[in-house]
DNA sequence: TTGATTATGTGGGCAGTGTCCACATGAGTG
DNA sequence: CACTCATGTGGACACTGCCCACATAATCAA
């Protein structure tokens, strides 16, 4: 009897998870507190015991996404130690494949639906952590003479922008066409390798620069 | 008597423009067909004579944004002829300052709220035009030996990603902090020059590459 | 054990929304 | 003038977020 869902139980987490399900299926605009409560099998007012607003539920869902993102970041940071280029590319790849797999969640996280200053700092930290990791990676890469010199913050912001941009293009479907038409193999791993190849090309421009010489 | 707004008139364009006003003030989620109709002074069903859906009104508003964007693009393309780097930077600057001035409109245009394949191709063209312009600029820059060689489409996609990423960071307020705290001069031109300086720094990383030499 | 307090879930209700419907009105055309 | 068609009107329905008072289960003090 793990989940004592009789009359009480682990709501809140149920709300968040089925919320994310609905998010993936019907987009941010298609989310309804009442419908979530209905499918969980609970009164239409139960969610208000765990979230003050619909907005707060959305923030909790986004926070869940940020948390997963950060967990993976730190794993990659260890896995590719002493390979800053690998660290950065794999981080980018992770964000981008998340944008490909769960475009709506990505849109919720980065589309301006969330105002980090509203919720109790909990979310703001999660969102900033990625930035902190990036700065650290850049700094390490500069020490190893892999990345160019200069203000690490500026370099990190540029890198973040590039990653976000790629992810946005993927999540909004502007890149999907090209790597879907090629994809005879429609399995997840198939799509993943194609996506990887494409991002590799596009990210290389960023690493080496658009200008000549 | 330009606007015969008595019983008939130029609705549709009124709907779009006051729609954009509401968008700027209250965000995408805060837009209500009924409220728009109410403030225009028209029945709550009048909009349905011009748009099948709320969605279609949103698309029309986004299309308006795309149109303005493209108009500026072609102007810049002429103004900075034979200066591909200038063309690209000014294009980026334009997108980004739009993201700064009207973050909600920008979010509507690129945040996944619009499915270009839905509306009658009219919007899809407007959105793709920017891409076409970029490819042309890149090609010209390659001819002038300013940009590196390689598939122009790939280079254009990278550039587009970088621009989008910067714009997203600005519109979602992740960069606002830094260039607002510095801004003693809070006038539009003041903010604009600060924004310009910041983007210049960040974009330079993209032009020269993150890697060392 | 018992009794009170707190956390959690329930139903009713209200204003507001998007969308469908039948109807009204006005402009334009034969 | 009559007819048609584009455009605008009010009514209605299901649905939503959120507020209220109330019910129930868990927790804890005595």
Helix and strand arrangement:
The structure is a homodimer of 213-residue chains.
Chain A: H1 13-26, H2 33-40, H3 54-79, H4 84-101, H5 103-110, H6 122-143, H7 152-171, H8 176-181, H9 188-208
Helix pairs in contact in A: 1-2, 1-3, 3-4, 3-5, 3-6, 4-5, 4-6, 4-7, 4-9, 5-7, 6-7, 7-9
Chain A binds a DNA duplex (30 and 30 nucleotides) through α2.
Describe the structure in your own words.
- Two copies of one chain form a homodimer.
- With 213 residues, chain A is mainly alpha-helical.
- Chain A folds into two domains: 1-50, Arc Repressor Mutant, subunit A (Orthogonal Bundle), CATH 1.10.10; 62-208, Tetracycline Repressor, domain 2 (Orthogonal Bundle).
- Chain A has helices at 13-26, 33-40, 54-79, 84-101, 103-110, 122-143, 152-171, 176-181, 188-208.
- The first copy, chain A, is globular and about 65 Å long.
- Residues 1-6 of chain A have low confidence and may be disordered.
- At the A-B interface, helix 5, helix 7 and helix 9 of A face helix 5, helix 7 and helix 9 of B.
- Chain A binds a DNA duplex (30 and 30 nucleotides) through residues 7-8, 11, 32-35, 42-46, 48-50, 53-54.
């Amino acid at each position: 009897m793990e989940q004592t869902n009789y009359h009480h139980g682990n709501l809140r987490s149920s709300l968040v998870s089925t919320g994310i399900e609905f998010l993936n299926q019907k987009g941010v605009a298609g989310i309804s507190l009442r419908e979530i409560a209905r499918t969980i099998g609970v009164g239409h007012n139960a969610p208000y015991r765990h979230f003050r607003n619909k907005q707060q539920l959305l923030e909790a869902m986004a926070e869940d996404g940020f948390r997963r993102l950060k967990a993976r970041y730190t794993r990659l940071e260890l896995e590719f130690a002493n390979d800053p280029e690998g660290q950065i590319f794999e981080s980018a790849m992770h964000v981008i494949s998340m944008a490909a797999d769960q475009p709506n969640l990505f849109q919720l996280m980065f589309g301006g639906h969330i105002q980090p200053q509203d919720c109790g700092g909990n979310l703001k930290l999660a969102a900033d952590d990625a930035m902190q990791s990036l700065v650290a990676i850049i700094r390490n890469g500069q020490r190893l003479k892999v990345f160019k010199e200069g203000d690490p913050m500026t370099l990190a912001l540029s890198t973040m922008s590039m990653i976000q941009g790629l992810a946005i293009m993927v999540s909004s479907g502007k890149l999907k066409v090209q790597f879907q038409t090629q994809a005879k193999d429609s399995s997840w791993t198939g799509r993943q390798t194609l996506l990887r190849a494409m991002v590799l090309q596009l990210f290389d421009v960023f690493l080496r620069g658009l200008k000549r010489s």
